[in-house]
Amino acid sequence: MSGENSRRRVAHVMAGAAMGGAELFFERLCIAQAAAGDPVLPIIKRDGARAARLRAAGLAPVELGFGHFAPLTRPRIAQALARFAPRVVVSWMSRATSFTPRGDYVLLGRLGGFYNLAHFRHCDHLVGNTAGLVAWMRAQGWPASRTHYLPNFVSDYAGVGAAADGAGSRPLLLGLGRLHTEKGFDILLRALPDLPGARLLLAGDGPERAALTRLAHALGIADRVTFAGWRQDIGPLLAAADLLVCPSRCEPLGNVILEAWSAGCPVVASAVEGPRELIREGENGLLAAPENPAALARAIATVLADPARAHAMAASGRRHFLERFSAAAVLRQWRDFLETVER
């Protein structure tokens, strides 16, 4: 093994859900690092579909249980890491970090949200995917030398054909993500009565699906809302949409914004943590006051009423994606960091 490769020898530990922004970025990063020639070991919560995707990319994931009563998981992680002998271990989010022991490697806790930092006390360094998140870590007492900003990257959906869901009356609004109260899709539904003629496609699933379905009927807009469930064809959905809407109450980053930018799809988002950091108001998207259906409707209507402005914002978003959030740009930052980080 070359010295360069040994400097980038990395294991990743993920105990997250089947779907989600962090979980899917974990997969993309593991696959990209391996494709670049770096030795990579993914250790994951048992998930046949995730394991199959990683194996298809030439990786050999270790699948373990990460439940509340999993006494063998911690020693099995230690055994897998001892066999692989990584230089760096990246533990993703709180649960994986709590199961990952210290060892003869640099332990990085990777955060995609404002988690309880007690779970990360044994880490050598913390990595956040927004500058705001890193500033928050430092405000909690972590030194600047041990807290680092490394962004996400998303797939490049430029030139992808439109999904059949886009056929029919226009305009088509798209919401992507878990149907959870934090994602604010109820706010988007309440905005829809002020957007006559607009259709909404919600691609995702979660605990709020039944409540959102009832709300759509109560608002008299059920005939204009499609609950599409979890979808893998994100690029075609973005190609079909006139606008991506991110109405979140809490959004530390906003991977869906990056995905929309990659596809050249205009974006309207609520002005919460991640979108505020990403979006340059009026240049590559519009922001609306959080928890305000009327404000969200006005921002959406502004974009829909001015196709030239929508096109300009989408083009600016595409440029921003290529400069900062493409696979090549982000992988370069991760590889450089892994080569140089020390305990």
Descriptors for this entry?
alpha/beta, Rossmann fold, six-stranded parallel beta sheet, 14 helices, globular
Q: What's the arrangement of secondary structure elements?
A:
Layout: H1 3-7, E1 10-14, H2 21-35, E2 40-45, H3 48-56, E3 62-64, H4 73-84, E4 88-92, H5 93-99, E5 106-111, E6 125-128, H6 131-139, E7 147-149, E8 172-176, H7 185-191, E9 199-203, H8 209-218, E10 225-227, H9 234-240, E11 243-246, H10 255-263, E12 267-270, H11 273-278, E13 286-288, H12 293-304, H13 307-325, H14 327-340
Parallel strand pairs: 1-2, 1-4, 2-3, 4-5, 5-6, 6-7, 8-9, 8-11, 9-10, 11-12, 12-13
Largest sheet: 7 strands, parallel
CATH architecture of the largest domain: 3-Layer(aba) Sandwich
Stretches where pLDDT falls below 50 for ≥5 residues? Answer: none
How many beta-strand runs? Answer: 13
CATH hierarchy class name of the largest domain: Alpha Beta
Order of helices and strands: HEHEHEHEHEEHEEHEHEHEHEHEHHH
* Rg calculated over all Cα atoms: 21 Å
What oligomeric assembly is this protein in?
Answer: single chain
Question: Can you walk through the features of this model?
Answer:
- This protein is globular.
- The model has no long low-confidence stretch (mean pLDDT 94).
- Helix 10 packs across helix 13 (307-325) and helix 13 (307-325) packs parallel to helix 14 (327-340).
- It contains 14 helices and 13 strands.
- 44% of the residues are buried.
- It has 343 residues and is of the alpha/beta class.
- Helix 6 links the parallel strand 6 (125-128) and strand 7 (147-149).
- It has a 7-stranded parallel β-sheet, sandwiched between helices. The chain has a 6-stranded parallel β-sheet with strand order 10-9-8-11-12-13, with helices on both faces.
- The chain folds into 2 domains: 3-153 and 326-340, Rossmann fold, CATH 3.40.50; 164-324, Rossmann fold (3-Layer(aba) Sandwich).
- It has helices at residues 3-7, 21-35, 48-56, 73-84, 93-99, 131-139, 185-191, 209-218, 234-240, 255-263, 273-278, 293-304, 307-325, 327-340, and strands spanning 10-14, 40-45, 62-64, 88-92, 106-111, 125-128, 147-149, 172-176, 199-203, 225-227, 243-246, 267-270, 286-288.
